[in-house]
Design goal:
288 residues, alpha+beta, globular, Diaminopimelate Epimerase, Chain A, domain 1, 2 domains
């Protein structure tokens, strides 16, 4: 009810593997309530009417750490299960001199996270422990283990390795299908009668060697996260015996360095982010 005061703020358009975000630093501004953050995201994400991006990264004061990372999609909904924004945040905070050369500790959702600074361009994050889906069991490298499901689509049988990081991923080992074929497969997988398969985000992998993989993914309308896609493909390639526990994953013209450590089973990813442009935006108050 009533009107909000207008808010003017600088923004930074950034991307990781082509996944573009609008980063907004609200650390020194008043703590705005969630509905306002959601409305700002809805206003500035549209590509024809706003700045344009797949989501907004808000940096706000934390309770346990100096910074809390909050991410909202273009519909104004908050999500806390993506990793791509961490590389944008690491790049921005390092360049702004906030962290010096020290690692960056911040809050994201209900957990504390850390961004390790490798150099001015590359940052390392902990993705947690991969688990099988839907059982939730810890995934471990096991030459005799059975991790795959099969699905028949348009007369062809595909082997799918289901797992979960922050959300369920279904890894398909493919041999050069076209982009249009991958889009069709992604849509058809979500229409299968098996509920477990319909919940999976399809990710396609081509192992080049024991240390290098190519990853392709079609997100459709879901929230994009290329870090999770590459990490899921990597884990599947390890448990299926195709690669070692350190690989370089190529996706969307970018590369991620992935490590799955033993005996802790912690999964790490080193990646980078780039600036596209920056400017100032005035969010005008609106009638409720």
């Amino acid at each position: 009810m009533g009107r909000e005061a207008g808010i003017e703020f600088p923004f930074y358009k950034m991307h990781t593997a082509g996944n573009d975000f609008i980063l907004v630093n609200f650390l020194s501004l008043p703590l705005y309530p969630d509905p306002i953050l959601g409305r700002i995201a809805k206003r500035i994400c549209p590509r024809l009417r706003g700045i344009g991006g797949n989501g907004v990264i808000f940096l706000v004061p934390g309770e346990r750490e100096k910074i809390r990372l909050r991410t909202f999609n273009s519909q104004g909904m908050e999500y806390t299960n993506l990793f791509d924004p961490f590389f944008c945040v690491g790049k921005y905070l390092f360049n702004s001199g906030f962290s010096g050369n020290q690692d960056i500790n911040l809050e994201y959702g209900e957990r504390n996270s850390c961004i390790n600074i490798i150099d001015s361009s590359h940052f390392r994050i902990n993705l947690g422990i991969p688990r099988s889906f839907p059982s939730g069991r810890l995934l471990k490298e096991d030459p005799v283990g059975e991790y795959s499901l099969t699905a028949k689509i348009n007369g062809k049988t595909y082997s799918i390795t289901p797992l979960t990081l922050e959300y369920p991923i279904g890894v398909v080992f493919e041999t050069g299908e076209s982009r249009e074929t991958l889009k069709t497969l992604s849509r058809d997988l979500r229409r299968l009668e098996k509920p477990d398969l319909r919940a999976l985000q399809p990710v396609f992998i081509s192992p080049y060697s024991r240390e290098e993989i190519q990853v392709k993914v079609w997100f459709g309308k879901s929230n994009k996260d290329y870090t999770s896609a590459c990490a899921g493909a990597f884990v599947a390639s390890v448990v299926q015996g195709f690669t070692d526990r350190e690989v370089l994953a190529h996706c969307q013209g970018n590369s991620f360095f992935l490590q799955w450590t033993q005996p802790s089973n912690q999964l790490y990813c080193t990646g980078e982010a780039e600036y596209i442009y920056y400017g100032n935006y005035y969010y005008e108050s609106e009638e409720e």
